[in-house]
Design goal:
Layout lengths: L5 E11 L4 E8 L12 E8 L4 E7 L9 E7 L7 H8 L5 E5 L2 E2 L9 E7 L4 H13 L2 E8 L8 H8 L3 E5 L8 H6 L5 E6 L2 H13 L7 E4 L10 E5 L4 E5 L5 H7 L18 E11 L7 H6 L2 E2 L5 E9 L2
Parallel strand pairs: 8-9, 8-11, 9-10, 11-12, 13-17
Antiparallel strand pairs: 1-2, 1-6, 2-5, 3-4, 3-6, 3-7, 13-14, 15-16, 15-17
The structure holds FE2/S2 (inorganic) cluster.
């Protein structure tokens, strides 16, 4: 994926759905239908800010059976590089954006006997689209959605309408918590579990499911990392023969792109492996933030995922 493969869209509606989450509706700028997708897909939104370009992944929450528009939910992140602030503060109805074609790295298993969906906060968004697919196929499912309080329960009325009594909401403010043991110890054979939300929730679900002997192929999670801020460092791109400075609030991938060098990507969240880049020389250490490389590969420090990972180093040379 690169920017040449993007689609032009127009923002046709913006709605503030919780104090932190806005709901955006996008339509193709030429009025055509948008490309087909399945529940769990994400798009990369390319935002041209005043001083820089942001490219952030967002899950599609609209129905895969309605392709006139795409809908996304964006949580405002204060401690970030600024993409979500751009979406919240700068974007207006009528503005144009570029988006990458949808990619699904969090697909429902088509032959599962039952689906247990677990969401925390803004992690609900891929499940909204998946509910449409589940209803369409008549599949058996239950949805568990954990939020801070009622005012933070984004999209709860759509969910209630869609899922009815298959939806269970948990409010931290009322000390309600998902009973992971109860939930994952007694599911019928052939059940798949899917989790999206904060890292702590994802890890808890994975560990509990593994503890009860769930096969790895039945445990699914979406763990996009926002590229963390960090110390500035410099990198030399060996093939392009370019020195690139990586400031604290910009990812390595964004810095390389700003220097005019393209790196393939799909998720920009440390999941897909598309941006994997060979490390040719390193004086210092890599700060791996991805969920793709194994621990052994991370320790070998021979490759890096520039979409989310950084370095603390005197020098770093990449095969780009
Ligand atoms: S673009 Fe997917 S891991 Fe970097």
């Amino acid at each position: 994926m690169n920017d040449a493969q993007t689609l032009a869209v127009e923002v046709i509606a913006i709605e503030q759905v919780t104090p932190l989450v806005k709901h955006f509706t996008l339509a193709a700028a030429d009025g055509a239908q948008l490309p087909a997708f399945s529940g769990g897909s994400h798009i990369i939104v390319v935002m041209n800010g005043a001083e820089r370009v942001y490219r952030n992944p967002y899950s599609l929450l609209s129905s895969p059976h309605r392709l006139e528009t795409y809908e996304i939910g964006v949580r405002r992140m204060e401690e970030s590089r600024g993409g979500s602030r751009f979406m919240h503060d700068t974007l207006r109805v009528g503005d144009r954006l570029a988006i990458a074609h949808p990619v699904n790295l969090f697909a429902l298993d088509k032959i599962a006997h039952k689906h247990v969906l677990i969401a925390g906060g803004i992690g609900i968004t891929p499940f909204l689209a998946q509910l449409e697919d589940l209803h369409h196929s008549g599949a058996s499912y239950e949805l568990h959605y954990s939020v801070r309080s009622t005012e933070h329960a984004a999209f709860s009325s759509q969910l209630r309408e869609r899922a009815g009594d298959r939806l269970r909401l948990y409010y931290d403010s009322e000390q309600q918590a998902i009973d992971f043991d109860g939930l994952l110890s007694a599911q019928p054979l052939g059940t798949h579990v899917y989790v999206c939300g904060p890292a702590g929730l994802i890890n808890r679900v994975i560990e509990t499911a593994r503890g009860y002997g769930w096969p790895e192929s039945h445990i699914h999670w979406e763990k996009f990392s926002a590229p963390p801020v960090g110390d500035a460092f410099d990198v030399f791109l060996a093939r392009a023969k370019l020195n690139v400075h990586v400031p604290p609030d910009r990812s390595l991938l964004e810095s390389i792109e700003a220097a005019g060098v393209e790196v393939p990507y799909l998720c920009r969240g440390g999941v897909c492996g598309f941006c994997q880049t060979r490390v040719l020389e390193l004086d210092g250490e890599l700060v791996h933030n991805d969920h793709f490389l194994s621990d052994a590969d991370k320790a070998r420090a021979k490759s890096i995922m520039p979409c989310v990972s950084r370095a603390r180093c005197k020098s770093l040379v990449l095969d780009l």
